[in-house]
Write a structure and sequence with these properties.
415 residues; alpha+beta; 11 helices; Rossmann fold; 5-stranded mixed barrel; BirA Bifunctional Protein, domain 2; homodimer; 29% helix
């Protein structure tokens, strides 16, 4: 894409009402727009990153048997009353609204209830199990405070997967598969080495759960890491009995602040019993389905990548989630160099390399500052000496390393 | 995909609380699930159709210069008060909700206001024009009645494109481009020949507009068609002065019921003036941006295709939006025939042909009835005589035409 056509503009100053580094950088670079605290729009660059994250997650969910659906945001209170999760004293982040006839509706903050209810129409026998459904869906959570940029939204895109199994053994085996799939997601999105499977409390309705926590100074959680076992324990469950059960020694654990980038829950028959999701086993007996849920917030993950990998010049995207493969910068207004850059852009696009091409009529310093801010991992510079030398500069955004390549070698490097 | 793995089940009977044929068929075939009147979930087959429609629309919007974004559903009343569209007396479909601090928010029923407001941060000079933004985004509309299945939702996915131009001439030229792009969308999704560009009232805030109306008995609108000019006039603007202006004669028009499958609006400086979206022209003077909006409801379009093209056995998808390229049906439980079908399935998938494979242990009649109901355009039958003859039956869902093909020829036909 030609940057002169991209409608978003970068800006030098962070907006004054934004405390979080992730939102400051993403707004400055034109990835997002703030509607209000905790509510952000995704602009073309931001939507590209979200789509790449979504595709990585989708591949991993499909690989473990997930079937994609999309449930509604508007929620009928009746199914939430059945599981005792409608009241604000039970779930304190409900947004509520009303139909014209004044009956109350909720905006989905999670989807256990409608997913279980829907599955009743499609599941009746042991032959219908196991089943795994997932969606990328907008959640609404009425957070009292929302100061963490896109990491804690009042409206945010979440991948939520749900497991339906015939017994605990089958459910446990899938739970392990889901853990491995989640690890692949964090590895592929560039935060794997900082992310720990973490033992945590189960919140309101299951005793324990697992979270994935990414070590980061701005994290709202406090975890204790065992480097030896490559796992962690959330502060909220740091009890001697639990540590003993996990085979961990308090003295060997390292404390860190961390961001929760995913969570997985074993519900057992919670939800399925209340909502009557049963199956007939081999003997024709009705049995409750064993249920689980597995969530990843896409904005949270994107914000974590920015918090973790940016530097003082701007964002540094991993290649796997960057909005473009390369940032081609025509550094000088010399017509011959511009014609060279134009032709190189066309050639790269024709080779299937998705390039952002800075063809704007700006000073070199401004272009390079913007390129650092936007953070595409590979920069290709067509400069003053490109015509004479026949070489472009290829700069690695992360470490600043520079290679000089002939045109053919450049195309080959991306193919 | 193996149908034994697909979690959705078909059902013989339509749900009793569903009047609309589109929802009856889509629920029976397992494409959607009804949460409440006007609120539907998309299940795997339904989401595939929506995604194919989305991709067609995306290609056509990109082709006319659209840049994709995704704006929030939660809306700050302030920007809607600025244009006098917050009150229920102005826009009567608002869903409202409240933050914890009791301040009121809206759920976006359309996005002119936030789109114009966002653009203020990125547009300041004539050099920044023209700009075209679009999104696929969930709209919420508090409809008093919602009885038309997925054709009139309280929550529905919409493509909304917005145009920002420097003057009326440039805006008018884009408007013509948008009309052509919309025609391509309807042609590509299989309803083009039944769809007419229709002159209509502009609703609340523009005098006139154009709609795209698809002739269909269950349509809520009444239009008058000029076959000669291949255009129509909405009942609401059937006045002699208007007909004269359009060069139409009342006596030559044909009356029909129709479904509004798209609408396009020229707003002029409405919205941009109220929200202060201006640009500096060549002389440095501040000018209001000329604005337009262009909408297609994806559920409405999908529902229209079902209403228009289904028959008494079920849905008949056009190839371009069908959930799968072909429906492979292993008709007999004979192990040799099943092994043949298994191998054919693997071979088709390996050739990149996305196939639904009915490998279920069911009677032939049930399988064929399900296949008719689901409506994939091409059915491949592995039957009793396939092994002897070395041929499969290829059945066209639309007209029932049968071809007998050798395996190699079959693969070739899809490649």
């Amino acid at each position: 894409m030609r940057q002169s056509q991209l409608f978003t503009k970068t800006r030098r100053e962070a907006p004054k009402d934004e405390e979080a580094k992730n939102a400051q950088l993403l707004i400055r670079a034109g990835y997002i727009h703030k509607e209000m605290a905790g509510v952000y729009d995704y602009l073309p660059l931001g939507l590209r990153v979200i789509d790449r994250i979504r595709n990585i997650i989708r591949e991993e969910m499909n690989a473990i048997g997930g079937q994609e659906v999309s449930l509604s945001a508007l929620q009928n209170p009746a199914i939430w009353q059945a599981t005792d999760r409608w009241g604000d004293d039970k779930v304190d982040v409900w947004f509520r609204t009303r139909l014209k006839n004044d009956s109350e509706l909720g905006l989905g903050c999670t989807h256990e209830e409608p997913m279980v209810r829907m599955m009743r129409d499609h599941l009746s026998s042991y032959r219908d199990l196991p089943r795994y459904t997932y969606q990328f869906q907008t959640k609404f959570r009425n957070e009292l405070r929302a100061k963490s940029g896109i990491m804690r939204g009042r409206e945010f895109l979440m991948k939520d997967l749900y497991s339906f199994n015939k017994d605990q053994e089958e459910a446990d085996a899938f739970y392990e598969q889901a853990i491995q799939a989640y690890k692949k997601v964090y590895d592929r999105t560039g935060i794997g080495e900082h992310t720990y499977l973490t033992f945590a409390s189960g919140g309101m309705f299951s005793k324990f759960s697992h979270e994935f926590q990414t070590v980061c100074e701005v994290g709202e959680d406090r975890i204790y890491i065992s480097d030896e076992k490559r796992m962690a324990v959330n502060d909220e469950v740091m009890e001697d009995a639990i540590l003993a059960n996990l085979g961990l020694e308090r003295g060997k654990l390292r404390e860190a602040k961390a961001i929760e980038v995913g969570n997985i829950f074993k519900y057992g028959t919670r939800y399925t019993k209340e909502l009557g999701l049963t199956y007939r086993d081999h003997d024709g007996e009705e049995q409750p389905v064993i249920f689980g849920a597995y969530g990843i917030g896409l904005g949270r993950l994107m914000g974590t990548i920015v918090e973790l990998l940016s530097d003082d010049k701007g964002i540094v995207w991993p290649e796997t989630v960057a909005p473009f493969r390369a940032h081609l910068v025509a550094l000088v207004p010399d017509p011959v160099a511009v014609a060279y850059a134009d032709a190189l852009y066309e050639e790269l696009m024709a080779s299937g390399v998705d390039v952002l091409y800075d063809d704007r009529d700006l000073r070199a310093g401004e272009k390079l500052a913007d390129s650092d801010l936007i953070g595409i991992p590979t920069r290709i510079i067509v400069g003053r000496d490109t015509i004479d030398s026949g070489q472009v500069e290829v700069v690695n955004r992360k470490d600043g390393e520079v290679m000089r390549l002939e045109r053919g070698a450049l195309i080959g490097a991306f193919a």
